[in-house]
């Protein structure tokens, strides 16, 4: 099976960018392991390939860490009560993985755990380090023995060889050497630590669970603390949102409460704008802005910028739904669920053979003929990566009797690959990197195609002046090629293979 340019498709090429990971950590809570499993369940959309929890218990015969990891969904890996019983303690960190660096081997599943001279330490990482290959090479030369192929293990070795004595200073030493987009949750015997990269590209938030009046929790605390990739993971464990961890901030939670260190000073962030468009769960609030509301506003802006006469607005479910609602509200054209998504199609079912993969779209989506037949349809989706799914959806809607099919996309054209933790194909395989909008419309078989503009996207997110070329507020590199964090490893590679950045192959 091939994409629209004839390039072969791999087993993970389902024509959507993929989030790499979700992280969760909790301190001072009864059943911290079970709370972490719940948090990871709420963050399942950020990674479905593997999951893991490391907990710490101070009671019993000895204080120690406990680990369980597995390949698969949170419910599959932690669904057994005996497994949850093997994760006792009042503190834990957890991780959901979508593998972009390192194969999906059990030894790559996080949190990574290691014993140091100061005791055990568990690290969960969401993001991607752009100088990991360089650092790894240097660390191996110094004698470090890597257990996994994931870039996250670099943190473990940098902490191990640091000459500082305490955990926090060693961690600061480590983050000053890495370059990239990352959010970390770190668990030691004394503390839970959250770290966000200097530009805050990947999300991390702080929450609190007050203990009921008059009660105290473990360690005589009045509250439990939570770190998580998104606020939806707070809701499921009954925590209240405190604040976003700031770009470049290290938040340390211990029995004295919460403190903050900013080893990089105060920074203006470049949060990933694609979190608002597609990755984050609609009920999350990120960097002070509700994702659901953001998507509706993006849809409304898309309608203002790209109006067309039609009979019905149809979202490509699920991620296209809020922006289609925004488009419908703004345009006054009725909104209908003209495509129904089957939520019970597992990846294992659609992956094994090319023939089954070809049917993949029909397995996931089917046309609701009564809402489409004889009508001029506007389909609203969040992005076009390779275009293979868009073409099949357009075909399916036409086959259901649509008179016209117009496609509207709630992101600007995806013209560049992401190197900050989102799995996108290389540039040469991105439809928008190689074709203008008119050609793309022809390739996907739509009567018309339009994307929200970059300035329109910024306006929808509350920046009236648009992108503000000199000081953009977000990372938008996959739409602009303006990479805010240097691509150290890739720049070295691209001296030998310039096509990696230009897509010219
Ligand atoms: S390149 Fe795109 S997907 Fe990657 S962090 Fe930047 S905005 Fe997000």
Automatic annotation (TrEMBL):
HAMAP family hit by this protein: PurF
Cleavable signal peptide: none
Pathway: Purine metabolism; IMP biosynthesis via de novo pathway; N(1)-(5-phospho-D-ribosyl)glycinamide from 5-phospho-alpha-D-ribose 1-diphosphate: step 1/2
Domain Glutamine amidotransferase type-2 per the UniProt entry, residue ranges: 21-256
GO molecular-function term, one example from the UniProt record: amidophosphoribosyltransferase activity
Record has Glycosyltransferase as a keyword: yes
Biological source species: Endosaccharibacter trunci
Listed EC numbers: 2.4.2.14
Keyword RNA-binding assigned: no
Residues binding [4Fe-4S] cluster: 272, 418, 475, 478
Protein family according to the UniProt entry: In the C-terminal section; belongs to the purine/pyrimidine phosphoribosyltransferase family.
InterPro entries named in the record: GATase_2_dom, Ntn_hydrolases_N, PRTase-like, PRTase_dom, PurF, PurF_N
Pfam families (alphabetical): GATase_6, Pribosyltran
Binding of Mg(2+), residues: 319, 381-382
Role of this protein: Catalyzes the formation of phosphoribosylamine from phosphoribosylpyrophosphate (PRPP) and glutamine.
Protein name (record): Amidophosphoribosyltransferase
